[in-house]
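User: For my dataset I need records formatted as: sequence, then structure tokens, nothing else. Please produce one.
Assistant:
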Amino acid sequence: IPVVVSNIGGLKEVVEHGISGLVVPPAVPEESARAMETLIFNENLRREMGKNARERVLKLYDWNKNVEMMLSLYENVLSSTSKKKSC
């Protein structure tokens, strides 16, 4: 399902505007309403964005891949820290 999010915090990183949902400015209810109307009244766009959103989540937010990436980052930091201490 495509979503409408405000352009704050990490939400704009999760939702790709016009591809997997719509990003609107914060505290502008008229923009939020227009974005919702766009999705409500355009079934093809809604379905396409929903499909894209699902693919994006599966690609970028896989739990196992994210854990592996974090472990790798920690290992690199620890490795570089221990190298600096030995110098």
